[in-house]
Amino acid sequence: MRPQAEWTNCIYNASAEAMHDVPDASVGLAFTSPPYNVGKDYERDMGMADYLALIRNVGREVYRVLKPGGRYVINIANLGRKPYIPL
After folding, report:
1. Which end of the chain has fewer surrounding CB within 10 Å, N or C?
2. Rounded to an integer, what distance in angstroms lies between the CA atom of residue 51 and that of residue 36?
3. So what's the pLDDT on residue 2?
4. How does DSSP classify residue 19?
């Protein structure tokens, strides 16, 4: 991640696990497309408990970095196309 002095209007992270350098209450808009854990090749297959823990961690980190009145956008799958489990 670039030093804060070099930040422009965008911060890109690969995962919530990389957000520790993002200051609290510093982001106006967070957009995420979480893994759906439906058989795609991620680093590992997760059981439901691990998957839900991952999603909770994403939510906690986004909440931590959002400014008051900030927005959190989640890209959600089309539930009609595949057998996804709705959150």
Report:
1. C
2. 9
3. 59
4. G
